[in-house]
Amino acid sequence: MADTDLLVNQLGECAEKHDFGGAFELVRKNLGELSKRLQPVGVKDALKKTTSDRLLLSFLDGAQFGELPLDESMMRLEKLVAFNANIPGPAGVMVLNDTWGLGTVKKIDGFYKRITVDFRTRKGHQFTFAAACDMLTVAPKDHILVLRETAPAEFEALYRDRPGDFVKKVIQSNGSSMTLVRLEDYCVANGFLKGVNWKKFWDSARAELKKDKCVVIPAKKTEPIQVKAAAEDYGDSWLTTFCGETDPKLILAHVREYVAQGRFETADQSVRSKIGERLGFAVTAARKVDDALYARLACQISALGFITPTATEMRAYLWERRRFIKASAALPAREVGAMISFLAVDDEAKERLYKAIPDFCFTAVSEVVMQFGGESACRAAAGALMKQPKAPATLTTLIVGKYERFMDWAELPSLITILTHAIALGEGRQGGETLKMQNIVRRLFGDKNWLEKIFGWLPEGDRVLFFERFQASIAWDPSTHHTTVVRMTKIVPSLADHLVKVEKKREYARLTSFRSYGLRKQEYLKLINEDMPANVKRIEFAKSYGDLSENAEYQYAKDEQRALMQKQTLMQADLEAVKPSDFADATTDSVMPGVTVVCDTKAGEKVWHVLGEWDNDPGLGVLSSKTRVAQNLLGKKPGDDFELPDEDGNIGFATIREIRPLPQDIREWMKLPDGVLI
Question: Which residue, among 484, 452, 508, has the nearest Cα to 631 in the 3D structure?
Answer without folding.
Answer: 508
